[in-house]
Amino acid sequence: MFWIWVVEGVCWPLGRRMALWSLWSLLLWEASSAQVHGQVGGSVLLVAERPSGFQVREAIWRSLWPSEELLATFFRGTPETLYRSRFLGRAQLHSNLSLELQPLESGDSGNFSVLLVDTGGRSRTQVLQLKVYDVVPRPVVQVFIAVPGETQPPKTCQVFLSCWAPNISDITYSWRREGTIDFGMEPSDLFTDGQVLRVSLGPGDKSTTYSCIVSNPVSWDLATVTPWESCHHEAAPGNSSYKDVLLVVVPVSLLLTLAGLLSAWHPCYSGKKQKDVCNDRVTPETENPLV
């Protein structure tokens, strides 16, 4: 089908019209693009905004980036979405000319444009930027006990809380202490873009919990820990801290490893019994000469 578009008395073929429209859309890209967020596996609605009194005669939806593709059209009252693109079978054009995409995939992020033409030949171009995010998984929080310093008050414990969300990017980390309204912490106590929090605890913080909140524009999750339990476990009588374990285990492991290597290299020089065994191993060979 060969489309003809008449605007202000000028008759343009469809090919030239599309090329001019694409160039105009790219010029408007940075200046007027609206951001839309979507979630992997979900749906998103790209809304075509129409001014008051704008009676649409034609509408054309396109993908501008990362690839330029024709997605949907509305011509002579008939919608059409069966165009070869990465959204084939996943695009639906609604009666208000908004475009719905579902189910969303992680590679669907990009820029989209809709061209609306009214019955008087006037046109309106709108550019939208779609960003698709993964669902945020539950984070993992680890508690690390700091080595007590000379200036540390007695009966206190300083810990570092480390938060990590596996296999995901474009996320924000924040912390919340139980019983407080403010989600933020002092900037001096945050490290690695908010993933690590330094906390000083006292006897009054035995039941205090801290939550790490991981979020992106479409989802969030959290994990909660009670850091004083780690302090109490390390300071309990009869329990060695990880520093004491390292001071004992590492040297002993090294000595055992060296002893094993020496025994493997010189099996006949590690004692009288070993010498007798080696002599016994040689004797049969000397008593049975070859004929």
Automatic annotation (TrEMBL):
GO terms for biological process: leukocyte chemotaxis involved in inflammatory response; regulation of B cell differentiation. It is found in: Membrane. One of its GO terms (molecular function) is signaling receptor activity. The keyword Signal applies. PROSITE patterns: IG_LIKE (PS50835). InterPro entries: CD2/SLAM_rcpt, Ig-like_dom, Ig-like_dom_sf, Ig-like_fold. This is SLAM family member 8. Keywords: Glycoprotein, Membrane, Signal. It comes from Mustela putorius furo (European domestic ferret). Residues 1-34 form the signal peptide. Its main location: membrane.
